[in-house]
Amino acid sequence: MKPRVLVAAPLVGDAVERLRAIAEVEQAPHVLGRAELLARIEGVAGLVALLVHRVDGQLLARAPSLRVVGNHAVGVDNVDLAACAARGVVVTNTPGVLTEATADLAFALLLDAARRVTEGDRLVRSGAWRGWEPTAHLGRRVHGATLGIVGFGRIGRAVAARARGFSLRVLYASRSAAPPDVEAALGATRVSLDTLLAEADFVSLHAPLDASTRGLLGAPELARMRRGAVLVNTARGALVDEDALVAALRAGHLVAGLDVYREEPAVPAALRALPNVVLAPHVGSADVPTRAAMATLACEGVAAVLEGRAPPHPV
Ligand code: DGY
């Protein structure tokens, strides 16, 4: 009898079709909510989950036959890794394939927040634009400014590569130093987080969310940033104290471009009311080839474990 696999959302491409060759696949017609996921998980051997699906003790207790979770994301903060390990459930993720798409979006948010593109869009649509004025709608200069990258893995480095085209000075803060040849190729200098926050005109977050990075930027860290600096977050909302960020934006101390939020899809009304923040709906990886590649890796992780092969990216 083929093992049962639950694919908890419609995916891009045909990766699920290939899973059908080795498994009895239940393909959800929409992104499953918590109750729907819990109701379907019993008897499932392989789960393709999204970052919105909490894989925790409660879910695992309902799924004694679960052997593998193919997480359709590089971040695995939605998965209780210790609980999975304790039950022998393999977890796989999708690193590498979303690097360039996420770096593109980080740069889009940086440019948008700095040059007030979305704010200008709102102005034009409202009919209130009075025409070209030397002193109106002024933004921040990007060319030649200083970019601070927090977390210097694949995505942080891809952002640094883009920064070269804008002649940005690049600082980075990271647990470990990048190899000297990488630093040289990207023109990036490692500094402490404090120095980065004090010197950067733009700060872009690319650290994973875990116990050590939750609330990495709280009120004191945001206060350390330069007045008028731009904070870009395409990583995870909980890296930043959202209330402290709202206060810093409201005070005009900072400008921001955000793709991620503490409690998605809830975005605080106070944040939505502010003009000096660009709000994207967690679309860092949202281009077609990237999402297709993520689906392929997530499904391949599940298939590999069910067939007794080594999965491409075990966490
Ligand atoms: C991830 O893979 O962790 C991203 O947030 C998805 O866009």
Mean pLDDT over the residues: 98
Number of strands: 12
**N-to-C SSE string, H for helix and E for strand:** EHEHEHEHEHHEHEHEHEHEHEHEH
Radius of gyration: 21 Å
State the CATH superfamily name of the largest domain.
NAD(P)-binding Rossmann-like Domain
Determine the CATH topology of the largest domain: Rossmann fold
The name of the CATH architecture of the largest domain is: 3-Layer(aba) Sandwich
- Distance between the first and last residues' Cα: 28 Å
Count up the helices.
13
List bound small molecules: (2R)-2,3-dihydroxypropanoic acid
Q: Structural class from helices and strands?
A: alpha/beta
Class of the largest domain in CATH?
Answer: Alpha Beta
Main sheet strand line-up: 8-7-6-9-10-11-12
Estimate nothing, just give the exact number of structural domains: 2
Shape from CA axes? globular
The helix content, as a percent range, equals 25-40%
Report on the biggest sheet. 7 strands, parallel
Strand content: 15-25%
Unreliable segments of 5+ consecutive residues: none
Description of the structure:
The protein has 315 residues and is an alpha/beta fold. Helix content is 36%, strand content 16%. The chain has 2 domains: 4-97 and 288-306, Rossmann fold (3-Layer(aba) Sandwich); 99-279, 3-Layer(aba) Sandwich (Rossmann fold), CATH 3.40.50.720. It contains 13 helices and 12 strands. The strands form 2 sheets. The chain has a 7-stranded parallel sheet, with helices on both faces. A 5-stranded parallel sheet has the order 2-1-3-4-5. The longest helix has 19 residues, at 288-306. The protein is globular. The structure holds (2R)-2,3-dihydroxypropanoic acid. (2R)-2,3-dihydroxypropanoic acid binds next to loops.
